[in-house]
Amino acid sequence: MTRALILLRRRLVGSVFVLLIVVIGSFLLLEAAPGDAVDAYIVSTGGDAGMIELLRHRWGLDQSELTRLANYLWALLRLDLGQSVTFSRPIREIILERLPTTLILMGSATALSFGLGSALGIYAGARPGSLRDRFLSIGSLALYAVPGFWLGLVLIVVFAVDLRWLPIGGIETIASGKTGFSRAADIAVHLVLPVSALGFIYLALYLRMMRAGMAEAWRQDFVLAARARGLPRRRIVLAHVARNALLPLVTMLGLQSAQMLGGSVVIESVFAVPGLGRLAQEAVAGRDTPLLLGIILFSAVLVVVINLLVDLAYAVLDPRVGAGEASA
């Protein structure tokens, strides 16, 4: 436990610098992009030079870039993300409204991809070179090559338009008045297609990693010794081969969190899911730099937290991890 706490403390210190780099880098990149919120507002509603000057002063766009960066960092120290120029509301409130939807989508897709991918990888790697191993390996490679947005559109056409088994998009039925379990069931039905579109891509990755890890584990001395002792093949597969092949997947789980979050932007746009991804699209369309910075910051914090949890889980599964840091 002490070793895990020391590892957590070191990771937290490093995470502060990571978040600072993300904030400053994102701010400079967004400022370098052509156009701003005033340009987007004038294009959509119209206005004269006086209105343009008034809006730039109201939103602080008449200040220098360094001044705005310094003001933004000072506001972050007070946990103030500012106001959205598109929604005219506090950014923290807007993000906290959309965040649960994205967490549900990411969590469900991660559970699907990691759980089913690991199980299929164990099934394929239990007998390397067999027909099922070759079939699953080729199928996973083909699935991993499919773009997420294309898979989402195919699922919509087949299951929502042609068969009409599932809703086309959204997170729940509008103005349904459902509460409690009935509302949870309605949300679950609406999430079937977006979770499948997002999860199946990474399912193929976990399947291939598990299969490759098991193929490597079969050649290890401890597995050969277990086979020489006459242990049942099922026990060897689950207790020795799969257990050791699972450790790299735990590491990949943290690394894929950022890609999963990026993939949710596309999937939420395809299925009209009101999460952070859809909000980021709206912020880009409105040139709402403060809102987009807030989304990037929340996303970075989410990825950092997930990787911290993965590091702790890995330290528990493999006592060798962090031992050098704990003794330093």
TrEMBL record:
Keywords associated with the record: Cell membrane, Membrane, Transmembrane, Transmembrane helix, Transport
Membership in a protein family: Belongs to the binding-protein-dependent transport system permease family.
Predominant location: membrane
Protein's recorded name: ABC transporter permease
Cell location: Cell membrane
Source taxon at top rank: Bacteria
Species whose genome carries this gene: Mesorhizobium atlanticum
GO cellular component terms attached to this protein's record: plasma membrane
Gene Ontology annotations of biological process type: transmembrane transport
Span of domain ABC transmembrane type-1: 99-314
CDD domains the record matches: TM_PBP2
Transmembrane segments: 12-30, 103-123, 135-161, 187-207, 291-310
Membrane topology summary: Multi-pass membrane protein
